[in-house]
Design brief:
The complex is a heterodimer. Chain A folds into 2 domains: 22-51 and 355-514, MetI-like (MetI-like fold, Orthogonal Bundle); 79-243 and 277-329 and 519-563, Orthogonal Bundle (MetI-like fold). Chain A is 74% helix and 1% strand. Chain A has helices at residues 15-20, 24-48, 55-64, 67-98, 104-110, 119-130, 135-144, 160-185, 188-196, 201-230, 233-237, 243-252, 257-281, 304-341, 345-376, 380-389, 397-423, 435-459, 463-471, 476-505, 508-513, 521-529, 538-561, 567-571, and strands at 6-7, 10-11, 99-100, 300-301. The longest helix of chain A is centred in the middle third of the chain and has 38 residues, at 304-341. The N and C termini of chain A lie far apart (68 Å). Chain B has 2 domains: 40-139 and 273-321, Periplasmic binding protein-like II (D-Maltodextrin-Binding Protein, domain 2); 143-271 and 338-358, Periplasmic binding protein-like II (D-Maltodextrin-Binding Protein, domain 2, 3-Layer(aba) Sandwich), CATH 3.40.190. Chain B has helices at 3-28, 31-35, 52-66, 79-86, 100-109, 118-123, 180-193, 195-208, 217-225, 236-243, 249-256, 286-297, 299-309, 322-326, 337-342, 344-353; strands at residues 43-48, 69-74, 94-97, 112-113, 136-148, 172-173, 231-235, 258-261, 272-280, 312-313. The chains are: A mainly alpha, B alpha/beta. The interface between A and B is large, with 68 and 69 residues.
Chain lengths: 572, 363
């Protein structure tokens, strides 16, 4: 029997081949993915459990009242922030990578700075600045002689539009970072070919550079959209009813965690469908770089007026997304630093830094392991498992935290029961309510950041490299170490720093999973911010921002250096 | 070793150094201690919905008096689920809440145990504690009406119902209808007036709003001060916090322009919510937890509460903060809070049904 039928790319005669393919790498990767996916799957389990209030009741209530409002608000928010970050992120990345204009070498790293500002902080400071009672409107009233509310029109900051603006300002750096890395990694020969064939710079951008950078740009925009989807701090402060706000409402005001988990599951299905759709639309095209990275990118010097415009375009997001919020935080801190200094401020800072760096290292290791295992043997099973494991980023934090709590306490209580029955000794809770639980939470939530970044980056290394290395007698591990790691070094750093900065800012999971007497900067700031007293904890918020700046600058320098021929390392 | 080899080793050395620093940091840092600091016999473990900076002075006073250490974690979303999942092994002995709603949900979920003592029964009037001692109220906050001194006439608004009068169109502010304080308020209206009345009232109130519900109670005072609206719904203690805020003198100004109205004095009385505490079913330090509960209900702690947060003490004979007593005596709604809490889901649904949080729909 030699007849072979190809089903889904698998060959029917070799059922055993499916298992033969499961070698150490695949097995390890599958196991890791499954472990990370357990909390996410727990959310689905909760969705199926009967609640105190019947789910039918909640759904019919939601459908007849607010559900469609939630959906339209959420879609508008996602599209708005997605489009905004796409334009700002790729636009500025293309400008600073491919052109020469005044300030360009500063913009290269400064454009990343807003990443360090938590969304709820930027929402807070801009409300203070722009609301009716804020200094700007008071000044305008003074100038134009308007006297009362309703005399004139001014955009309402606490609105859907306001939320889009705030989230765009702090999230565009995801797209910028990934797009810039992709532009820097592109091969010169392709761009030259495009120019030789008579394309204008704009055409080279849209027809050549952008399609090649698409996986990276898409990775960036999907991170942004997931972050937007699960945001609660900003939309709650702006009184914008999104799907996530609805999830919390059903959970806390209607006392139905199962109803909330059902909503969250629907939201996750939606995210999975979006990701699948994007992949399908690529038609399996893959873009590898074959040309040398060491050739200098052909940068275009800009004429006076164009250079000025380019500088302004790059300056604006930095001022709006970083300089203004940081300035206001400094202003608050000058008045209220004593409140923060009176607390165990240094301890909170240490806690935050240790948590963030530990999680970053672990998330990068796991992300790299998964991405490389998939590259080695991309079995559909493993790819699916890794996708599920990295979807935690789209789940609202507190809901995902419940997903972490359930299996951990199940494990703890099972061990306790066993030990009690067998040895008459109670072990109590082992993992629940520990730092370990908090770190698990971060890994589940932020794996998407490391895995997504590294998968996109590995994807750009041509598979011929692997072939060559293996032919030369190197095993997978050795090939990873000698060939891939040096090539994707920058992306490893990017992944680590994204996780680091995000952990510094993370709030809902930290709050729920942490042990007794344990504060991070984010939880400390939240105590006050939750009662609209951000000023009192401004120094804490400023420290979160500050702690994010240094790694962000290191990252940006490393990205520039990743292309030895690139001029910014020479000119500086 | 050749120079080139050494150069290649640098990244490795750096990597190992980073990992060792991290590991050492993890071990040396207070993390090792926090992991299970809760086993100490002479302690009590608290899950709190109230922020640490609000309750720390009270807990410090307790530790000073009794020598019992209090371990706390400030949790909001998911405290109930965490308690449920941890089950009998949970380290939590006691929970603190800023609202009756959360306590009620915990009763329903069966994670609390009833306790009773002469002291608790003596200190806390019966309408502010659960009949079986599943929860105890510790402080009271009245949900009142802020009115602009300049732009309102005394007598124009005397009840919550008055806020829905057509004459007030575009003159009222409030925080989100979904905030626990408002959900409890609406639930109390349902308990007193029934669902249909409440729906009508909520619709009228919605159309009187000057803007989409937003901000916290303090933000409503700011809005009155800026002329955005003339009336707002708020908790009493926010007034005290603004009046005494020397760090932010602008807040003293907001407060100065505001008159306090205790609504429904001719009817069933002003809605009063509690902050309260309960002992968990899993409590391993039950006696210590009861000691803390008794301490919090007693005169000394009640005075600290009154002094710090301008709340009304639950213990009847405790002196009010002079500022709080300057607002005058008022008749509180005596309806059982447990009964009010049962209407919270319906209240929350009414907010959706009337699209309250989208703001006025008459323009």
């Amino acid at each position: 029997m030699s007849q072979r039928v190809s089903v889904l790319g698998l060959e029917k005669t070799s059922v055993f081949a499916l298992f033969r393919r499961i070698d150490g790498w695949t097995f390890g990767a599958l196991l890791t993915s499954l472990l990370i996916a357990v909390p996410i799957l727990s959310v689905f389990v909760v969705a199926l459990a009967p609640g105190i209030t019947s789910s039918d009741d909640i759904w019919s209530h939601l459908v007849s009242t607010v559900l469609f409002h939630y959906i339209s608000t959420t879609l508008t928010l996602m599209l708005g922030v997605g489009a905004g970050t796409l334009i700002i992120g790729t636009g500025t990345a293309w400008l600073v990578t491919m052109h020469r204009f005044p300030g360009q070498s500063i913009f290269e790293w400064a454009l990343v700075l807003p990443l360090a500002v938590p969304a709820y902080v930027i929402a807070y400071v801009y409300t203070d600045l722009l609301e009716y009672a804020g200094p700007l409107q008071i000044a305008l009233r003074g100038i134009f002689g308007w006297s009362s509310y309703g005399d004139y029109w001014f955009p309402e900051i606490r609105s859907l539009g306001g939320a889009i603006a705030m989230l765009t300002l702090v999230l565009y750096p995801y797209v910028y970072l990934l797009a810039r890395a992709a532009f820097l990694e592109q091969s010169v020969s392709v761009l030259e070919a495009s120019r030789v064939l008579g394309k204008t710079p704009w055409q080279s951008f849209t027809k050549v550079a952008l399609p090649i950078a698409r996986p990276a740009v898409v990775a960036g925009v999907s991170l942004v959209m997931m972050e937007t989807l699960n945001d609660f701090g900003t939309v709650d402060y702006f009184a914008v009813a999104t799907f996530t706000a609805g999830i919390y409402d059903v959970w806390l005001n209607m006392n139905s965690i199962s109803g909330a988990a059902q909503l969250a599951s629907v939201m996750l299905m939606f995210v999975i469908a979006l990701i699948a759709l994007e992949r399908l639309s690529r038609h399996g095209r893959k873009f590898h770089h074959t040309g040398s990275k060491h050739a200098t990118l052909p940068t275009v010097p800009l004429s006076h007026s164009k250079a000025l415009l380019a500088s302004l375009i790059c300056l604006l997001p930095i001022i709006l997304g970083f300089a203004i919020p940081a300035g206001i935080l400094i202003d608050y801190s000058l008045a209220f630093y004593q409140v923060t200094l009176d607390s165990d401020y240094l301890l909170y800072t240490t806690n935050s830094l240790l948590l963030a760096s530990t999680s970053a290292v672990l998330a990068v290791m796991i992300g790299l392991f998964l991405a490389y295992s998939i590259r080695l043997h991309g079995s559909p099973l493993l790819i699916g498992a890794a996708r599920v494991a990295s979807i935690g980023y789209a789940v609202p934090g507190a809901v995902l935290a419940i997903g972490v709590i359930l299996p951990l306490s199940y494990f703890d209580n099972a061990v306790d029961s066993y030990m009690l029955e067998t040895f008459g000794y109670s072990t109590g809770l082992i993992l629940s309510g520990t730092i370990f639980a908090v770190i698990i939470g971060y890994l589940v939530r932020f794996l998407a950041l490391s895995f997504g970044t590294l998968e996109a980056s590995l994807g750009k290394v041509t598979i011929n490299m692997d072939g060559a290395s293996r032919t030369l007698g190197h095993g997978p591990a050795s090939t990873l170490k000698r060939v891939h790691l040096p090539l994707i070094r920058t992306s490893i750093l990017t992944a680590g720093i994204l996780v680091f900065v995000d952990v510094m800012k993370e709030l809902p999971m930290t709050m729920l999973l942490r042990p007794f007497n344990f504060e991070t900067l984010a939880t400390y700031v939240h105590q006050y911010a939750s009662d609209e007293l951000l000023e009192e904890s401004a120094l804490g918020a400023l420290t979160i921002v500050g702690a994010g700046i240094l790694p962000v600058i290191i990252l940006s320098v490393a990205i520039s250096r990743s292309r030895p021929g690139h001029r910014s390392s020479e000119s500086s | 070793m050749k120079h080139a080899d050494l150069h290649r080793l640098y990244p490795k050395i750096l990597g190992y150094a980073a990992v060792s620093v991290l590991v050492t940091g993890l071990i040396v840092s207070p993390w090792g201690n926090t992991a299970r600091a809760t086993d100490d016999e002479n302690s009590v473990n608290l899950y709190s919905y109230r922020q640490a900076f609000l309750i720390d002075p009270l807990l410090d006073a307790f530790t000073e008096q009794t020598g019992i250490k209090v371990n706390t974690v400030f949790v909001k979303k998911g405290m109930l689920e965490r308690l449920k999942a941890e089950g009998r092994n949970s380290d939590a002995d006691m929970v603190l809440s800023a609202d009756i709603g959360r306590l009620h949900d915990m009763v329903t979920a069966g994670v609390l145990q009833g306790v009773s003592s002469d002291k608790l029964n003596k200190n806390i009037p019966s309408q502010f504690r659960h009949p079986e001692g599943l929860w105890y109220g510790l402080t009271l906050r009245a949900r009142i009406i802020f009115a602009s001194k300049d732009r309102t006439q005394p007598g124009e608004v005397l009840s919550l119902a008055d806020l829905a009068k057509p004459a007030l169109q575009g003159r009222v502010c409030t925080r989100s209808g979904k905030h626990v304080y408002n959900v409890s308020l609406i639930a109390s209206v349902i308990a007193n007036e029934g669902i249909d009345q409440t729906r009508q009232w909520l619709t009228g109130l919605r159309d009187n709003l000057a803007r989409k519900p937003q901000g916290n109670d303090r933000a409503q005072a700011k809005a009155i001060s800026e002329g955005v609206c003339d009336y707002a719904i708020a908790n009493t203690y926010y007034m005290g916090k603004m009046v005494t805020n020397t760090l932010k003198p602008e807040q003293q100004q907001w407060a100065a322009g505001i008159r306090i109205i205790f609504p429904d004095q001719d009817g069933h009385g002003t809605h009063v919510n509690i902050s309260g505490a309960a002992i968990t079913k899993s409590a391993k330090h039950r006696d210590n937890a009861i000691a803390l509960l008794e301490f919090l209900s007693d005169t000394h702690a009640q005075e600290i509460y009154a002094e710090q947060n301008f709340e009304y003490p639950v213990k009847p004979d405790v002196t009010l903060h002079p500022l709080v007593s300057s607002w005058g005596k008022f008749k509180a709604d005596t309806i059982n809070l447990d009964k009010v809490a049962q209407h919270r889901i319906t209240a929350s649904k009414l907010v959706d049904e009337t699209a309250f949080d989208l703001g006025p729909q008459n323009d």
